Amino acid sequence: MVRARKTNTTKGSRANGAASTPTPISSALTTPLSSAYPSTYASEAEYDVNGEVTKLQVGINSLSLSSNLPKPKREKQRPFRFLDLPSELRLKVYEYHFVNTGVVLDLDPDNYKRIHQKLAILRSCRTIYREASYFFYSTHPARIFPTHPGRYFKTKKPLLARMKPCQRASMSSLELRLGPGWSKPPRGWVVNEALGLSDCVNVAKITVFVECDPGNDIFKGFRQPDNFYERFSKSLLTDVLDEMPWVERIEFDAWPSVKKSGALMRGLMELTTSRGLKISWGRERGWTDAEEVERQPAPNLNDPLFISHGNSGIMVVV
Predict the structure, then answer these.
(1) At residue 261, does pLDDT exceed 80?
(2) What value does the mean pLDDT take over residues 96-117?
(3) Which residues pair with 209 in a beta bridge?
(4) Distance (Å, rounded) from C-alpha 72 to C-alpha 69?
């Protein structure tokens, strides 16, 4: 009985020793590398970077505070109350609006581009029509007879005849151009009732602009005889003044080739003086009330030079 107990004790001690310090076992097989076993993580070939970035962006957006707030409502812009402005400021707006519409109104192919589109403001309301229309026609003189070459030059219905009576009544000045058609004036250049000069009751000044004087020597051989154009121009201005006896002043202007001492200008100034009207001068020619000083022609260097000798009957040509 005693031996059996010893044997059991020995076996128990060996079992305890084997658990604490295992004995290595030699083997002919090699230990496999860690890459030989399947991994629970995805490899670089299986890893989708774009997908992870997309998930990350979605996560960031979900954290933003603005996405949880309601979108602001778009307020409707209120119209500007233009008529609440003082009349002085409205006139300044009209002045800025009608810039680049030309200095003088006349029948011209470019009127649609320069003027017609600007006049669309008159369709706004009755108040703006009354104010803007008066401002436009009172600050832009109209040409009595058209001078643009082509069909407008020979028309029988000038610009004044095409206007409304209220538009003609708003004008403060007119312009009469002389020179175009000096050899054969158009048939439409006639002062009659259809022209509408009697409606221009607020016109105080008429500008007479002379483009050329057929009485000049350069027109010799081309002009009609017996001072035809001088008489025609004087008669035309007389008819215009007869239709508007309230005119106070005549402004004369011309191109540089026109002389104040010419037959055309002398006849027009005599007519103005005989009616007791004031005479003023335009900026283009630069005339004044003083007598015109004619410039001496420049000497021609190719002309021969004459030198008188002591004897009056001898002259030396160099």
Answers:
(1) yes
(2) 91
(3) 177, 253
(4) 9
Are 123 and 129 contacting, i.e. CB atoms less than 8 angstroms apart?
yes
The structure tokens listed for 133 are 């229309």
Highest mean pLDDT: which range of 2-6, 39-43, 159-163:
159-163
Burial tier of 285 (Cβ tally within 10 Å: 0-12, 13-18, 19+):
buried
Task: Enumerate the H helices of 155-224 as residue ranges.
Answer: 159-162, 165-169
Whether residue 176 contacts residue 236, with contact meaning beta carbons closer than 8 Å, is answered with yes
Other CB atoms closer than 10 Å to residue 241's CB: what's the count?
A: 19
Q: How many C-alpha atoms does 168 have within 13 Å on its Cβ side?
A: 19
Residue 276: phi and psi, rounded to 5, are 75, 25
Say if CB 227 and CB 183 are below 8 A apart. Answer: no
Considering the chain, what percentage of its residues have pLDDT values greater than 90?
55
Pairing state of beta strands 315-317 and 306-308? antiparallel
Task: Return the HEC string of 132-163.
Answer: HHHHHHHHCCEECCCCCCCCCCCCCCCHHHHC
State the CB neighbour count (10 A cutoff) for residue 174: 23
- Decide: 213 and 258 in contact? Cβ < 8 Å: yes
Provide the residue type at 314 as one letter: I
**Token pair for 292:** 């015109």
- Assess whether pLDDT exceeds 50 at residue 11: no
Identify whether the C-beta of residue 181 lies closer than 8 Å to the C-beta of residue 148.
Answer: no
pLDDT at residue 85 greater than cutoff 60:
yes
Burial 75-94 (b: 16+ CB within 10 A, else e): eeeeeeeeeeeeeeebeebb
Beta carbons within 10 angstroms of residue 111's beta carbon: 18
Are 282 and 265 contacting, i.e. CB atoms less than 8 angstroms apart?
no
How many CA atoms are closer than 13 Å to the CA of 225, on its beta-carbon side? 0
